[in-house]
Amino acid sequence: MSLFLEQWKKLAYIKCDLAKRDWFYGTSGNLSMKISDDPLLFLVTADEKDKRDRCDEEFIVVNEKGVPVFDTELSPSLETLIHANIYERTAAKCVLHVHTVDNNIISELYGDEGKVVLQNNEMIHILTGSFDNLLTIPIIENATDMAQFVKAYTPHICHDFGAVLVRNHGITVWGRTPLETKKWLEGIEFLISYHVKMLMIQGQKIKAL
Ligand SMILES: CSCCC(=O)C(=O)COP(=O)(O)O
Ligand SMILES: [Zn+2]
Asked: Does ipTM surpass 0.90 in this model?
């Protein structure tokens, strides 16, 4: 199997798996996978397409400017330049972006602090391999201007894997392999969901006193 087809299938598997979790509300979310370094080329989902749909044209091949390299009726994701920026600055091979209710709540709750610190959970050990039991996720403001948006992400794109929460918008996670990226996305969503539910229960407890 050609490398290109192999990458396509891996990304299609991840897209299908995230769709089963119902992480593509409306037409939100976008996914990409690098297929070559020089020149930079990557597969990316199409703008406004329902990412729960399986179809022949699931992904578009784009260059470092986010421009399709083959003829297509589809437009690349509006967030393609964020994916391109991550590939240009790191050795990441995959970028996943989803909007969930829990990641939106946490981004709003801690938005003014510019970060959320997740702690004291075995999932952190599973993700990081360290017993530090602390994971800090930066939170940036949402933006409609893409150049400004890319600029806001940039200081946080300093490792080959990472995550950024966008306030009242969603989360973007990248990693060195597609499976590592999916693992980080699932792990972080688990920790965020746990955190939100704990706050809800603790709030109820305080009210009952
Ligand atoms: C500034 S992008 C607004 C839409 C969005 O947040 C999203 O995740 C889906 O965009 P796409 O163009 O990839 O369908
Ligand atoms: Zn989005």
From this structure: yes
User: What are the two backbone dihedrals, phi and then psi, of residue 98, each rounded to the nearest 5 degrees?
Assistant: -135, 155
Where along the chain do its domains lie?
3-208
- Expressed in angstroms and rounded, the spacing between residue 23 Cα and the centre of ligand 1 is 13
Instruction: Give the CATH number of domain 3-208; options: 3.40.50.2000, 3.40.225.10, 1.10.150.20, 3.30.420.310.
Output: 3.40.225.10
96: left (phi over 0), alpha (psi -120 to 50) or beta: beta
Protein residue with its CA nearest to atom 6 in ligand 1: 28
pLDDT in tens, the chain (209 residues): 688 899 999 999 999 999 999 999 999 999 999 999 999 999 999 999 999 999 888 999 999 999 999 999 999 999 999 999 999 999 999 999 999 999 999 999 999 999 999 999 999 999 999 988 899 999 999 999 999 999 999 999 999 999 999 999 999 999 999 999 999 999 999 999 999 999 999 987 666 65
* Calpha distance 58→14 (Å, rounded): 12
CB 133 less than 6 A from any atom of ligand 1: no
Quick one: residue 193, left, alpha or beta (phi over 0 = left, psi -120 to 50 = alpha)?
A: alpha
Any ligand 1 atom below 6 A from CB of 77 = yes
Q: How far apart are CA 167 and CA 82, in angstroms?
A: 16
